[in-house]
Amino acid sequence: MFVVFCRHSETDKAENPDDPPLSDRGRALVDEAATWIRTQELGVPNLVISSKWVRCRETASILAYHLGVADDQLRVRPGIPATASRLADLVAELVAGVGPEGKAVLVGSHPSQQLVEHIYLRDLPKPSRRVKPVVYVIDTELGESVASWWPDKIHA
Q1: What are 43-76's pLDDT values in tens digits?
Q2: I want to staple 51 with a disulfide (CB 3.0 to 4.6 A). Which of 10, 56, 93, 114 is the partner?
Q3: In whole angstroms, what is the distance from residue 53 CA to residue 142 CA?
Q4: How is the chain split into domains, by residue range?
């Protein structure tokens, strides 16, 4: 199973500092991220799950639209887990829900990005904390990230 993890895109904190929406640039960057995800030839994800934050929901909605995910397959969770055991539980839940050949997209914020990097990236290059959005394609069978994208990354 492939899980695409995406950290939300850039926000407009002037509009609502507690739960800011995406900025115009942030929305454009999600468009770029979706284009890159399509180049990975994973097919249409079975499910897109977002944390409750406006910035995450907007990022998920844009990705779902560009990736061809049906509206009823876009879900919101109170949060994407920020502990290893809870993330493992969520991945197991996804595998059970969409099957070992399925694909899912998770959209979260910085704490869950750090966890994904710790578990799945190990010694691979990582962006600075300020970079948004960040996308990792994770092969759950291999237990590692097989591809990554972020703005201004030099892609081989």
Answers
A1: 999 999 999 999 999 999 999 999 999 999 999 9
A2: 56
A3: 30
A4: 2-149
